[in-house]
Each structure stands twice: as C-alpha cells, then as structure tokens.
Amino acid sequence: MSLQAMFVGALLSALVALFLLLLVRRERRVGVVAMGAAALMMPMAWNSILNWTGAIGLFSHDLPFPPFPISWQDTGTGVFTLAGAALALMVGPCRGDAGRRIAATAALAALAALVVDVYLY
Predict the structure, then answer these.
(1) Angle at CA 22, nearest 5°, toward 75 and 87?
(2) Tens digit of pLDDT for each residue in 93-116?
(3) Are 105 and 21 in contact, with CB atoms under 8 Å apart?
(4) Which residues of 73-94 are buried (b: 16+ CB within 10 A; e: fewer)?
(5) 38-53 and 3-23 helices cross at what angle (nearest 10)?
(6) Residue 52 class from Cβ within 10 Å (0-12 exposed, 13-18 middle, 19+ buried)?
(7) pLDDT band for position 15 (50/70/90)?
(8) Per-residue pLDDT, 72
(9) Phi, psi (5° rounding) for residue 33?
(10) 79 with 47: CB under 8 angstroms?
(11) What are the Cα distances from residue 97, in Å, to 5, 32, 43, 87, 100?
C-alpha cells in the first residue's frame, strides 16, 4: 500500500469520525472533537507497521462475504484507532468523564476508521 493511499484513507477516516462525533454524539468540546485526529494517526501507524514489516499481504485477505468484506488489516485499523482514541480521551479532555462515555466516543472513531478501511481502501 502506498503512503498516499494510506494518508487518503486515514484522512477519510478522520472526516467520518468528525462527522460522527458532531452529529451522533453531539459533542461540542473542542478537545474531544480534536480527538478525531486519532482516526487519522492510528490507521497511518497500523498500515505503516504492516508495510515496514512486509506483512501487508498476510493481513489483507478479505473475508468472502460481499456485504462486509473485512480483513485482519481492517480489524487492526479499528483496534489501533479504538486504543489511540481511548487513550487520548482518558489522558486529555475526558479524564473526568465516566468510562462508558469515553468508550462510546472512542468507539465512534474506531467505527469510522474500520468502515472506511473496509469499503474504501
């Protein structure tokens, strides 16, 4: 996967995460909305790791289920984004929030990254 393809996919993930945070969670805190950057950085990190190790071919075999053709590479993108977003929220703008709220917000960013990865690149 090229660096350009990774960046475009990660940028789309961040835009979808921002959309979900603003419209679904109705989040207005600037720090939380800026956390959408995790949906940009974490997919880039995961795909870079796969490229550097030469494992992109091992992880990129899609499930033969046309409605949701997920692969291990797609799953890794979602997991990395979930972890990065949760960590950014816990040490940043949501350190006083309930864990359930943090998890739900991080899950939206992860869902955005996963869906973009599955269907767009």
Answers:
(1) 50
(2) 878 889 898 899 899 999 999 999
(3) yes
(4) bbbbbbebbbebbbebbeeebb
(5) 150
(6) exposed
(7) very high
(8) 93
(9) -65, -35
(10) no
(11) 35, 11, 25, 13, 8
Boundaries of every domain in the chain = 3-51+69-120
The amino acid present at 121, given as its one-letter code, is Y
Whole-number Å distance between alpha carbons of 6 and 88:
21
Residue 74 tokens read as 């797609």
What number of residues does the chain have?
A: 121
**Tokens standing for 12?**
């789309």
CA-CA-CA-CA torsion for 58, 41, 86, 108, nearest 10 degrees? -80
